[in-house]
Structures are given as C-alpha cells and as structure tokens.
Amino acid sequence: EDQVTQSPEALRLQEGESSSLNCSYTVSGLRGLFWYRQDPGKGPEFLFTLYSAGEEKEKERLKATLTKKESFLHITAPKPEDSATYLCAVQAGNAGNMLTFGGGTRLMVKP
Amino acid sequence: SQTIHQWPATLVQPVGSPLSLECTVEGTSNPNLYWYRQAAGRGLQLLFYSVGIGQISSEVPQNLSASRPQDRQFILSSKKLLLSDSGFYLCAWSTFGQGHHFGDGTRLSIL
Questions:
Q1: Which of B48, B3, B52, B11 is nearest to B31 (CA)?
Q2: What is the DSSP letter of B42?
Q3: Chain B residue numbers touching A101 (CB-CB < 8 A)
Q4: Is the distance from CB of A86 to CB of A36 less than 8 angstroms?
C-alpha cells in the first residue's frame, strides 16, 4: 500500500528564517511526486511535480527536491504570505491517475 | 486555459436532508474527475473518481453517490445526510500522468 508521511505537522518560523518541510513516501514505482499549497477555505494549488531522484524545481522562495525515499520543500527567507498548509502527494506507476496524499504541514510565518 | 468551478461555496443542511454538489470543468476534454473530502486539519480522502461519462468508481463505502452526466460535469449526491458527512468537499480534474487540479471547495455543515 502506498503511504505518504509529512513532517512536521506544524511549523512556526520568523520572517526570514529558512527551513525545510519533509515528505517521506513508500510507493510501488513512483510515477510522480506533487507539492501543493492550500490556503484556509480554498482548494489546493499546484506547485511542483518531480519525476525522478535528483530532480529539483524552484519557484520564488520555494525549492523542491526528490530522493528515492523522500522529498523536501525548502523555504528560503519566508515571508508572512508564505503561511499556508503544504501538501505532498505521490502517484504510483500501477495506480492510474490516483494520488495518495500526506497529511500536510501547516506553516506559519510571523513578521 | 482550464478552469474548474464548484458550487455552492458553503452549505448548511439538516440531518436527513438530500445533497447535490456540482462541479464543472472548462478548457479540457475527457478529463478524469474526482471528489475528495477533507476533515478539519487532516489530509484529503478520495471519495469517487470517474474516467468518463457514466463511469464512477467509489473508494470509500458511505451514503454518498456520484454521477457524471456530461464529459465535464461531476455531481456528488446524498439522499439523506448524516452528521458525519460534514466536511470540506473538493472536486478535481486531471489528464493522464499529471497532477490533480482542484476547485475551491464546498464547506458542508450538517446540523
């Protein structure tokens, strides 16, 4: 069974304090790993897709990396507007288009 | 560009009443469509998915049902709501091999 575990569940940072969110996964043949941002009361917003170990993607202050067991979402010099819940999901090679989601990390950035 | 519409944004219903939530997608043909439920502070639970008109697969036994009367229309229904049906319902679409794109959700409260 595919499993995704995100840590920490919640993270409080001061503005400018860089950190990383972790997404550990167990999947039968990874087809893709997806990162989403979710603001309160809204649907998840797509951020990145990673397909193979060693791949990296960047967008503004965010950088996602992938190994064979986990993915990291690095946040450099965060701002209060980066506060949100960040969700990780995996797509297995034998699961059609299905995604398995982790429980998310709630990030709070204080000014 | 593709867009997804979900309505209503919020809904308050009494126990035992019926439910109909609607989702439509624009700008793409023959998408895979999904209904998810998200409990407060928790991850996403897949309820139903559809790969084509009239084709519905259920992931979780419950008193909810789904229908896909048109290619880009997906409906979530119930004949009699339970208190446990409260939650945040999200519709999503995808094409093969890609991540899911979400609507803004419906906040359902059962009284």
A1: B52
A2: S
A3: 43-44
A4: yes
d(CA A99, CA A91): 5
CB nearest A43 (choices: B94, B98, B103):
B103
Would you call B99 and A49 a contact, using CB atoms and an 8 Å cutoff? yes
Single-letter amino acid code for the residue at B43: G
Q: Is the pLDDT confidence value at A74 over 70?
A: yes
pLDDT per position as a tens digit, A5-58: 999 999 999 999 999 999 999 998 899 999 999 999 999 999 999 999 999 999
The confidence band for B61, taking pLDDT boundaries of 50, 70 and 90, is low
Using a CB-CB cut-off of 8 Å, the residues of chain B touching A41 are 105, 107
SS3 content of chain B, % helix, strand, coil (to 5): 5, 60, 40
pLDDT at A15: 98
Backbone angles phi, psi at A99, to 5 degrees: -115, 145
Assess B87–A contact: CB distance below 8 Å, yes or no.
no
Q: Which of B42, B44, B49, B60 to mutate to test the interface with A (most CBs of A within 10 A)?
A: B44
CA gap B45, A30 in Å, rounded: 20
Q: A32–B104: do the CB atoms touch at under 8 Å?
A: no
Contact A91 B99 (CB under 8 A): yes
Average model confidence (pLDDT) across chain B: 92
